[in-house]
User: Fold this.
Amino acid sequence: MSTLKNEFSNNDLTVSYDPSTCMQSGRCAKELSDVFSNNIIPWINLDNANKEAVIKQIKRCPSGALQYRLNIKTQAS
Assistant:
């Protein structure tokens, strides 16, 4: 059975989570609990920290289950 990735976005970032890759170490929730939660749905709330803190935490994910991409902002002409 395949599990689909989940995506969470705000103005700056889109974070994807691949549950089939996750090692369930809990590092994200322990180290940045304002963004990553085991008890609240949606479990990723990108508005609770600045993008640099979120990116730093994602880079610490031991399994690579968390990934991010910067959202491109366009200016109206």
The first strand starts at residue 6 and ends at 9.
